[in-house]
Design a protein that fits this description.
- This protein is α/β, with parallel strands linked by helices and about 270 residues long.
- The chain is built from 11 helices and 7 strands.
- Strands 3-2-1-4-5-7-6 form a 7-stranded mixed β-sheet, sandwiched between helices.
- Helix 3 packs across helix 4.
- The protein starts with a helix and ends with a strand.
Length: about 270
Amino acid sequence: MQYTNAAIRGAIATTAARFGGPAAETIIGENERKHLREVRDIAAAGRDAHVVDLGGGVGVNFLVLRELGHAGRLVLVERFDEYDDGNRMGSRQHALSLLERAGVEVLQVDFWPDCHLELDDASFDVACCYDVIEHLPGHPLRQLRELHRLLRGGGRILIGAPNAASLMKRVKLMAGRQPYSGYEDWVSDRYFEHYREYLRGEYQDLLVRAGFSDVRSDYSAAVTYSRARHSHHRRRRPRLSPVSLALLAVAAAEWLAPPLRHTVYAEGRKR
């Protein structure tokens, strides 16, 4: 089903308000256009489509879909290890409460050590994996093949993750900074940051190797644009501060040069 951008933005705002606090600021200030893109792509399968989301965090996309009236089965697969009172997206208890009220099924498992999910073959129309594979401590083919198993014939897989060749990565390297995550994060007892990011062609190749056909991809500046438009301008820094101006400059550069954009989205179909 095709929802208008205004309708999706309204559902995103309602969902953000339900989370409140730093989570609401993150959903709107940093990721509004990201959620807009992802929800629109999922919703294209229809309001009755059955959807599984591997590593979907606190389930923002699914909660937005329910706000829009999505009636199909929604299954979120997430371990929830990192979600506590210190996480800006809030605790697992709060997220699980919102998901339960919205009728979203949750499989609370760590899908890396044992990639088999207790879900039936060919039972979903759409499988999502957004901002996940860069967090896996190895290649993601086992997980992508498991999503392939869960899809019906003709079902779509949707993935999105950082572009390893983005402008921000290049700027960080030129400034002598680690482009993935800080050193202190890496040497901490609990590590939740990026292990490896991929290039656009590599994302496509991963889907082909996982058994998908009709694979296509594109670059997105959604995250950078949202941060430039909202986060620092309206909440943290004056519009003309150096940081805000730098974010606008990066967003403009990404818009003009797609290969430098922050994110790659790719999709494919099960034969």
